[in-house]
């Protein structure tokens, strides 16, 4: 694994887009962004660098200040927005996923469909994540939405077997570090959504720098001109990164940017 050698290959390289995962990357464990990180992002934007977040979340209300970002990616790549205008969508019509949702529900697996506004589930979502209040307990037979993602909370090996054996082949399955199984449209990846933003802004892939910590960040770090894993990242993420910065609790991304990116872009 290199440090940031790929970044140094092109001496005249100017970073034009910074992409951050949120949870355990830009956000601290209390789900806030430090004042220091905010100040660094503001400096980046003032210098002309596009600042983007790419999250597995479907709704980021009250999580991040929207004025800090030029664009964002939701639901692991199901949607991308530039200046609050949606430019990319790869959602899942629940009509196509209904049999899968019902099968998991009948097996006693906690499962939900999520769009950009709400969670539609067979369990009380706020008992798992206390800060989530925007959810409805529903009958999946009657659900009719375009879901950015589906997710399940398997408890046993049998639950995982039910999920894997019934998972439609046109959906990507990712099991995150917290054990949550996430299902997205097979073209709904962070790299695809970020690429749509890059094309929209006429930015080269080599001019993109991305930070992440979990399995659904691997494709983004591999895609970007420079991929940086957090110090608290999974080993699988660190293995594909060009550099490993400090942890999210220590403002690792902001410190690395201030030392290297802002300096190099002067």
Describe this structure in words.
- The chain is α/β, with parallel strands linked by helices.
- The chain has helices at 5-9, 22-26, 35-46, 94-106, 157-166, 190-200, 218-223, 235-240, 252-264, and strands at 17-20, 50-54, 71-74, 79-82, 85-89, 92-93, 110-114, 119-121, 135-137, 146-147, 149-153, 171-175, 181-185, 208-212, 226-229, 243-244.
- The chain has an eight-stranded mixed beta sheet with strand order 5-4-3-2-1-14-15-16. Strands 9-8-7-11-13-12 form a six-stranded mixed beta sheet, with helices on one face. Strands 6-10 form a two-stranded antiparallel ribbon.
- The longest helix is centred in the middle third of the chain and has 13 residues, at 94-106.
- The protein is globular.
- The relative contact order is 0.19.
What attributes does this structure have?
alpha/beta, single chain, disordered N terminus, 16 strands, 30% helix, globular, 9 helices, 266 residues, six-stranded mixed sheet
Average of pLDDT = 89
The SS-based structural class is: alpha/beta
Total number of helical segments?
9
Instruction: State the helical fraction.
Output: 25-40%
Evaluate the radius of gyration.
Answer: 18 Å
Strand content: 15-25%
Low-confidence stretches: 1-12
Termini distance? 28 Å
Main β sheet profile: 8 strands, mixed
Q: What's the SSE pattern?
A: HEHHEEEEEHEEEEEHEEHEHEHEH
Which strand order spans the largest sheet, edge to edge or round the barrel? 5-4-3-2-1-14-15-16
């Amino acid at each position: 694994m290199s440090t940031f050698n790929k970044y140094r290959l092109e001496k005249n390289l100017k970073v034009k887009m910074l992409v951050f995962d949120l949870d355990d990357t830009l956000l601290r464990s209390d789900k806030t962004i430090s004042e220091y990180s905010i100040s660094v992002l503001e400096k980046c934007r003032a210098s002309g660098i596009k600042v983007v977040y790419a999250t597995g979340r479907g709704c980021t209300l009250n999580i991040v200040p929207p004025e800090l970002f030029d664009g964002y990616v939701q639901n692991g790549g199901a949607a991308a927005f530039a200046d609050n205008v949606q430019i990319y969508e790869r959602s899942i019509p629940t009509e196509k996923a209904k049999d899968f949702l019902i099968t998991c529900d009948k097996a006693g697996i906690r499962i939900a469909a999520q769009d950009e506004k709400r969670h539609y589930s067979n369990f009380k979502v706020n008992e798992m994540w206390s800060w989530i209040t925007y959810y409805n307990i529903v009958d999946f037979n009657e659900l009719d939405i375009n879901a950015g993602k589906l997710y399940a909370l398997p408890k046993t090996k049998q639950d995982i077997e039910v999920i894997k054996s019934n998972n439609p082949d046109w959906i990507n399955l990712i099991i995150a570090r917290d054990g949550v199984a996430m299902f997205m449209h097979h073209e709904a990846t962070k790299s695809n959504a970020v690429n749509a933003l890059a094309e929209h802004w006429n930015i080269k892939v080599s001019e993109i720098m991305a930070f992440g910590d979990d399995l659904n960040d691997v494709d983004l770090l591999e895609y970007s001109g420079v991929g940086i894993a957090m110090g608290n990242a999974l080993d699988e993420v660190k293995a594909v990164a060009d550099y490993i910065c400090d942890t999210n609790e220590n403002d690792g991304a902001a410190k690395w940017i201030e030392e290297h990116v802002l300096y190099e872009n002067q």
